[in-house]
Amino acid sequence: MVNKVGQIMVYVNNQDAAKEFWTEKLGFTVISEMDNGEGFRFIEVAPSQQSETSIVLHNKDFVAKMSPELNLGTPSLMFYSDKLDQFYSDLKNKNVTVGELVTMPFGRVFNFADDESNYFAVIEK
């Protein structure tokens, strides 16, 4: 039985740029990094050291070679923010591509793109 989500795998073309995006622009923390020196490297990031769920940034080309059967598409992620207006402004000020801040029946939400044009959403919660 599953009792929580531990890690979400995100496959990226440039791990260093992705790490910079998630830490410098979104304010995430690096939880761990591993590089075996033979091409396998991952970078684990999360909103804080205490987060129950983290994002693991994997090298898309390496994973494609090792496991060609995997779907390497970007998952559709919804983040929560209790300071949505501030977060929205911060991302815009950091030149992150953000969508319009809209009110939906379930709350206010906007999307943003990383440097590889992968889109994610944030809802006020």
UniProtKB/TrEMBL annotation:
Signal peptide positions (record): none
UniProt xrefs under InterPro entries: Glyas_Bleomycin-R_OHBP_Dase, Glyas_Fos-R_dOase_dom, VOC_core
Domain of life: Bacteria
All residue ranges annotated as the VOC domain in the record: 4-125
PANTHER family: GLYOXALASE/BLEOMYCIN RESISTANCE PROTEIN/DIOXYGENASE (PTHR36437), GLYOXALASE_BLEOMYCIN RESISTANCE PROTEIN_DIOXYGENASE (PTHR36437:SF2)
Name this polypeptide is given: VOC family protein
Organism: Paenibacillus albus
